[in-house]
Amino acid sequence: MAVVLASTFPLQAAAADPPPRSRKVQELIDEAEKAARRLDLDRARELWAQIYTLEPSTMALCQLGQFDRRLGRLEEAAEELSTCVEQMPAPANDVERRRYEVRHADLAAVRQRVAELHVSPPPGTARLLVDGKQVSTGGGRVFVAPGQHEVTAMGKQGQVAHALVKVAAGKSAHVSLAFEAPTPSAASAPVPAPVAPPPARFRPNPWIIGTGAAASAALLGAGVVLHLAGDAAESEAAAKVARMTDGSMRPSSAQFRRFHDDAHAADTRASLFRGFGSAALVAGAAVGAATVVYVVFTRGQAEIRPRAAGAEVKLVW
């Protein structure tokens, strides 16, 4: 009886909600009500998802939250019921007041069983992930299961910031992320050159030329390989999304959720591969250009030092 009431209770004031429902939506509502009366919660939830897609409304969102709560999808239910309560107008009569109180009570019950993260991403964030699932780059409230969670922010220039946070049921935690500032290379003071006779004719050092060419080729090759890997990961994500949207799976099925998670993971890999690939291509081009400058223009005093992000080339003109 509780399930039927949860499904039909919000419909009492639906006639006053503009705009009028289409015939298709009304048929779906009738079918969802029948599914709820026979306790087929998965089917009822699926139908309300279709209704919300066709005509988004507070009523449909509240229904999704109610069914997700009963199906044990607590994180989704918490988000849906929170938005439902936020959008509800102040009650004007006893019926609306009772509905208002029931929805607030349902939300309070769900929030005692989930945890809440308040994420503050760094400026310039291009992607924000919680346990590999993409959320709004603006951060804000994210409902999660109790326990430990990984929050990742990826910048537009390939920066990555991570944070691990543990939060208990019914509690909330604030997560603030920041990209690491690049470490500037130490600037060495110029050393005055000793007075000496004009140097002999300069001959380029073959070791420096070979090292520079090899490093440039390796970095360029790595950049190409990483970009190809990113394209492959993007194709994988697109294939997963196509499978999810071809109608062969129900949105409430475990297979659909697995495909959803796999698609997000592939999309994340594509972004990382392309970010690192672009960095490798830039570094390879810089090393190659420095090698050419050394051969053509320098007087012979050159030094190549390996660094974590590539190589440092010191030339004397």
TrEMBL record:
Keyword terms of this UniProt record: Membrane, Transmembrane, Transmembrane helix
TM spans (from-to): 276-297
Highest taxon, organism lineage: Bacteria
Name this protein carries in UniProt: PEGA domain-containing protein
Organism of derivation: Sorangium cellulosum (Polyangium cellulosum)
